[in-house]
Design brief:
alpha+beta; Muramoyl-pentapeptide Carboxypeptidase, domain 2; 3-stranded antiparallel β-sheet; 6 helices; 40% helix; disordered C terminus
Length: 199
């Protein structure tokens, strides 16, 4: 495996005008308005929407995890390089500003300007679907990162979401069940920051 590239993802992305595609090496990327994606989820009934949220998280964990595993192998398991690549790539893809903390065996992620929360709010309002934590793709990517770092399966919960009226979204990844989402819950706890890898 090759090491994590020196260039950031936004610098590696290449536009293929002939095929109408964006690529980072063999990986193709899609530019999509977040309100288009999240607006589709607003149209679903509650049970179907929950299933789709979980499917999105699992799909991102699986496919995003492929890239993370390649990066981890390329840097001989260097956690700092893996975390840095993940945080930088999230910002480069428009997934907001990520800040990661460690508390024991758990990882705590805070995301400012989540496109999924913003897209959900921009897509409209519905009393039957408002108040939800909606950043399932970020759940999936954090699960991939936390599992790669810990070497064991990690569960992720979104504890607070900007779509619920919070200033930021907060996630916890842990090997044991994390606290259930708590609506207007308390801010993410102050924990030891991973040096050099917060934004």
């Amino acid at each position: 495996m090759s090491p994590v590239p020196d260039l950031r993802l936004r610098e590696r992305l290449q536009h293929d005008a002939v095929h109408g595609a964006w690529h980072d090496g063999p990986r193709r990327y899609l530019v999509l308005r977040p309100d288009s994606l999240m607006g589709a989820l607003r149209l679903l009934d509650a049970a179907t929407r929950e299933t789709v949220f979980d499917a999105l998280a699992l799909s991102v964990q699986r496919h995003g995890g492929d890239s993370l595993r390649a990066y981890a192998a390329g840097v001989n398991g260097d956690a700092r390089a893996l975390i840095a690549a993940t945080l930088d790539s999230a910002a480069d893809l428009g997934w907001g500003v990520w800040s990661l903390k460690q508390q024991g065996a758990a990882l705590e992620l805070t995301v400012q300007h989540s496109p999924f929360a913003a897209g959900w709010l921009a897509a409209g309002s519905d009393p039957h679907s408002d108040g939800l934590a909606v950043c399932a793709p970020i759940r999936g990517m954090l699960a991939a990162l936390a599992t790669a770092l810990a070497g064991v399966p990690m569960q992720v919960h979104e504890l607070r979401c900007a779509a619920q009226g919070h200033r930021e979204c907060c996630f916890v990844a842990a090997p044991a069940p994390a606290p259930a989402a708590g609506g207007k819950g308390t801010p993410c706890s102050v924990a030891q920051r991973l040096p050099g890898h917060t934004q």
